[in-house]
Write a structure and sequence with these properties.
alpha+beta; Rossmann fold; 3 domains; 6-stranded antiparallel sheet; about 20% strand
C-alpha cells in the first residue's frame, strides 16, 4: 500500500510492519517497529543510495528528531533534514497502529521467577562490572582512575586476573573523550595491551558526546559486552549542574545503553572539596553501582579498623599535602569505597595498587596490606604515647620529691608541668587525679591531700609515698605486657589511660572516692610518705587537725588511706 502526502513524501507499509518513506532530495527513511514495547523503533536514513545513520529513535519525539537532524546535517548538509524528519514524524502519527494493552503484559510472581534465566546478572567482575548495569567511579582529578580502569578493561579483554580472581574474556569498547590519544596509547602499552585484540579504543578525536543521542542509539551492542566512558564530564561539555533537562538526557542515554545489554562503566570527577561525586542527585539515583575512589599513594591509616574513614583530604586545597605524599613513589594506590550498590549487600571497600617499576605495569589488591599497616601504625603510636606518658610521670615524681612535704606541689602546678611536657590537659588531669594516685591504685606514687594553710583553703597537693615502683610508672604496662591470660596485678591492669578508661577497656571513676574503703571494699592500707623530716611537720591529719591540734581545713577530700589512723600511726 502506497500513499502520498501533500509534501510529496510517499509511505509504503511492508508486510512485516516496516514503513518506508520516500522523501525529497533523494532521502529514504525506513522505520521498523520494535516488538519490545520498551524499545524504540529502528530508523534507517539513506541519502542517494548511501546510509547516513541507522539507530533507535522515535520520530514522534522532537528530541529524537533534533538528534537525527544534527547527526544527518553533519553528514549531508544540502538537505532540509529537520523539515523532512518532522514531516515523516507527522506521517507516522497518522498511520494506525495496533493497540497494545500493556496491563495484559503483567505476569504472576511464579512465572516472573521462572524468567530469571533471561535476566540473570552474572558479574563479569565481582561487585564491579555487571552486564546491563551502570557502574560510576567518582574520583578527584589526577587520581589515577583512568589507569585503574584501563587495567580493568585489559583484564576483561584478555580474560586475565583481577583482585585475585580469574575473570571471563569480554569484548570491551573504551570510549575516551578526556585524555590525549598519545597518553592513552602510552598507558595501554605500559599495562601490556599489545595483545588485547578484544579491547577497542575510540579516542576523543571521534568519541561522540553523550548529548549525541543518535550516535549512542546506533552503538553496536551486539559487538561489545562492556562499554567504558572516560569521562562523563568530558562527554557532556557545556552541561552545568543546574541544567536538569540536559542532565536527564545524558542519564537516559546511559540507561538506554545498559538496557540493551552491555555493562556500562563511567568515570566522573568529584566536587572541588573531593567529598563526593559531582553533579545532580539524579546521577547517583540512575546508576546501579557507585564507587568513591581516592588516591592513597604514600598514605598509611592510623588504625586497621574502618580505614576508609581515615582517607587523606582529597580536596583541591590539599595539593601541597598530596604532592608530599606522592613524591618519589613508584606505586599508584587507589582506594575504592562503595556508596551505592543496588544489586545486593554493599561490598567491602578495597585498595588497588599499580606497580610501575617495570613494564608491564601490574595491578594488585593490597587491602590486607593497608589493614596491616594500619595495625602497625596504631601499635607504634600507642607505644610512643605510653613512652611519653611514662617519661612525663617520672619527671613529675622527681619534682614532687624535690619539693618535699613541706612545700607540696599543687594539683594545678602538676597539671601545668605535664602539659608543658607535651600531654594534653585531659591526659594531665587523668594522670594526676587517677593514674598515679595511691588512694586508687596500689602502685601509685602520690596521694592528693588538702594543703594546710593555703590561701584558697581548698588547694590539693601531691605528696609522694613509698615504695615508689622503679621504674614502673603509669602507662608502661603495655610496653612489657603480661603473658596472655595471666594477670599478676589486676588493679595495676586497670589503671586508667588518657581517655579515662582502663587498659581492659572499663571506664574508671571520674573523681577521687571519699569513702573509707578501697576499690575492693577493704579498709585502705597504711600509707607512708617519702622525704619525712626528722622533726615534726605540720601536715593535715584526719579531720583536718595538725599535730598541734589546731583545726585546719575541713576533710573534704580525706583519703581512704588516711581514714581510721591516729596521729601516732603516722611516722612524720
Amino acid at each position: 500500500m502506497t500513499t502520498t502526502t501533500p509534501n510529496t513524501i510517499d509511505a509504503n507499509t511492508l508486510p512485516d510492519g516496516t514503513i518506508e518513506f520516500l522523501c525529497p532530495s533523494q532521502v529514504r527513511i525506513t522505520v521498523a517497529p520494535s516488538h519490545d514495547p520498551r524499545q524504540k523503533p529502528w530508523v534507517q536514513v539513506d541519502h542517494a543510495g548511501g546510509n547516513v545513520i541507522s539507530t533507535y529513535a522515535n520520530l514522534l519525539y522532537m528530541s529524537d528528531i533534533g538528534h537525527l537532524t544534527q547527526h544527518c546535517g553533519s553528514k549531508v548538509d544540502a538537505v532540509a533534514w529537520h523539515a523532512i524528519l518532522t514531516d515523516v514524524g507527522f506521517r507516522l502519527s497518522q498511520i494506525p497502529s495496533p493497540s497494545v494493552d500493556v496491563w495484559k503484559l503483567a505476569v504472576t510472581a511464579a512465572d516472573f521467577i521462572t524468567q530469571a534465566g533471561q535476566h540473570h546478572m552474572a558479574a563479569d567482575i565481582r561487585d564491579f562490572v555487571i552486564p546491563g548495569c551502570i557502574t560510576l567511579i567518582a574520583a578527584p582529578r589526577s587520581s589515577g582512575k583512568t589507569i585503574i580502569t584501563l587495567a580493568v578493561a585489559l583484564a576483561l579483554a584478555t580474560g586475565g586476573m583481577f583482585r585475585g580472581e580469574s575473570i571471563p574474556k569480554r569484548r570491551v569498547c573504551y570510549v575516551d573523550r578526556d585524555n590525549p590519544p598519545a597518553l592513552l596509547r602510552r598507558h595501554i602499552q605500559a599495562l601490556g595491551g599489545e595483545t588485547a585484540h578484544d579491547l577497542h579504543v575510540l579516542t576523543r578525536t571521534h568519541a561522540p558526546s553523550l548529548l549525541d543521542r543518535a550516535a549512542w542509539d546506533a552503538f553496536p551492542v551486539t559487538d561489545y559486552d562492556v562499554v567504558v566512558v572516560d569521562s562523563i564530564g568530558s562527554a557532556t561539555e557545556g552541561v552545568s549542574e543546574k541544567e536538569g533537562a540536559e542532565s536527564q538526557r545524558v542519564i537516559a542515554t546511559l540507561k538506554d545503553l545498559a538496557h540493551r545489554g552491555p555493562a556500562v562503566v563511567g568515570l566522573d570527577n568529584t566536587i572541588k572539596s573531593g567529598l563526593s561525586y559531582r553533579g545532580r542527585g539524579e546521577k547517583a539515583d540512575a546508576v546501579d553501582i557507585l564507587y568513591e575512589a581516592r588516591n592513597v599513594t604514600g598514605w598509611t591509616p592510623s588504625a586497621a579498623a574502618q580505614w576508609w574513614e581515615q582517607l587523606p583530604d582529597a580536596g583541591e586545597h590539599a595539593w601541597q599535602q598530596r604532592a608530599s605524599r606522592r613524591k618519589g613513589q613508584t606505586e599508584l594506590r587507589v582506594a575504592f569505597v562503595p556508596s551505592k550498590y543496588r544489586l545486593d549487600i554493599e561490598p567491602e571497600p578495597f585498595v588497588l595498587a599499580v606497580a610501575t617499576q617495570q613494564i608491564p605495569w601490574t595491578v594488585a589488591d593490597i587491602t590486607a596490606e593497608i589493614e596491616q599497616a594500619g595495625e602497625e601504625a596504631a601499635t607504634s603510636a600507642r607505644k610512643a604515647k605510653q613512652a611519653k606518658m611514662a617519661s612525663a610521670e617520672a619527671k613529675l615524681i622527681a619534682a614532687i620529691g624535690d619539693r618535699g612535704p613541706a612545700n607540696p606541689m599543687t594539683q594545678t602546678e602538676a597539671v601545668s608541668m605535664l602539659t608543658a611536657l607535651g600531654l594534653s590537659r585531659h591526659e594531665a588531669r587523668t594522670l594526676v587525679q587517677r593514674g598515679g594516685n595511691r588512694d586508687l591504685y596500689p602502685d601509685g606514687s602520690w596521694v592528693l591531700r588538702q594543703i594546710p594553710g593555703h590561701r584558697s583553703g581548698q588547694a590539693l597537693g601531691l605528696y609522694q609515698v613509698s615504695p615508689t615502683p622503679a621504674p614502673h610508672v603509669a602507662y608502661t604496662a603495655a610496653l612489657a605486657p603480661d603473658a596472655p591470660g595471666v594477670h599478676t596485678n589486676s588493679r595495676r591492669e586497670d589503671r586508667p589511660v588518657t581517655d579515662g578508661s582502663s587498659a581492659s577497656g572499663n571506664r574508671c571513676p571520674s573523681s577521687i572516692p571519699v569513702k573509707n574503703k578501697d576499690l575492693n571494699g577493704a579498709t585502705a592500707p597504711k600509707t607512708t610518705m617519702l622525704g619525712a623530716a626528722t622533726g615534726p611537720i605540720d601536715l593535715p591529719q584526719q579531720h583536718g587537725a595538725s599535730h598541734g591540734g589546731q583545726k585546719r581545713n575541713p576533710d573534704l577530700t580525706a583519703s581512704p588511706a588516711m581514714q581510721g589512723l591516729t596521729d601516732e600511726d603516722i611516722p612524720f
